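User: I'm curious whether this sequence folds into something compact or stays loose and floppy. Could you predict its structure so I can see for myself?
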Amino acid sequence: MRDIGKYQGVIPAFYACYDAEGNICTERTKQWTKKMVELGVKGVYVCGSSGECIYQSKEERKRTLEAVAEAAEGKLTIIAHVACNNTADSAELASHAESLGVDAIASIPPIYFHLPEHAIAQYWNDISAAAPNTDFIIYNIPQLAGTALTMPLFREMRKNPRVAGVKNSSMPVQDIQMFKMYGGEDFAVFNGPDEQLVAGLAIGADGSIGGTYGAMAELYLKIFELCGQNAYDQARKIQYACDEIIYEMCAAKGNLYAVIKEIIRRRYGIDLGGVRRPLASLFPEDEAHVAKCVSLINDAVAKFC
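Assistant: Here's the prediction. I'll summarize afterward.
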């Protein structure tokens, strides 16, 4: 029976770290990894949506993962998102991730063309076969990928013994319940939408992976702690505070991750660089949103943590 303890906790989605010229910066990547260890999170989800993976080359993604693995020093669960929009590149990244000893690889379905489910299953199984000694996590994010993880596709993927979990970023929490019920006790289900972490944990999520966690990890760690104690009333108050902050982040004209990286610079003094085009950098009018977010986060941390 698989031990899913390494997946039970708060796992921030790792942000792409660039230098002043917009190139991958391994030193900043290592610095941010060490900050994750310091904050006490369970692990990191590397080269996913928050890592701007679809705008990066295979080589850049390899350098990022190598820097994370080195800086983590075995203190973090590492899940490497390896999906590219073709099987060969995805398999290459999967094999590379396994060579670094990551805990799991993960993949969205192929995007743009709407493939039949048997083709999606083959894509995922081919990627998994390239890392035969590593857990495989299905990334279900239908609102961006354009394809949902249906129960027939889920059941087909469960025939692969390496399939160890689902990162569920669909909005209905019922999906978490279904994947957990049919996945079994040794199958990990991660809550994806940051705005509903309390609901996801209440209905059975084992862990959580989120794109805003890095900006305010203290709050999500407290939510996870309180839910583990069945203190849902208090956890819900923190969730509401987090959601207000997220709504403010999303009100900016610049990209969400540009906002988050500026918040991190102000809160922790760590510069992760900007975002990669075509993602929009911060605009002058975003200053008020960033300042308000920083204030809201600091106030919530002081109040709840």
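Summary: The radius of gyration is 18 Å. The first strand starts at residue 10 and ends at 12.
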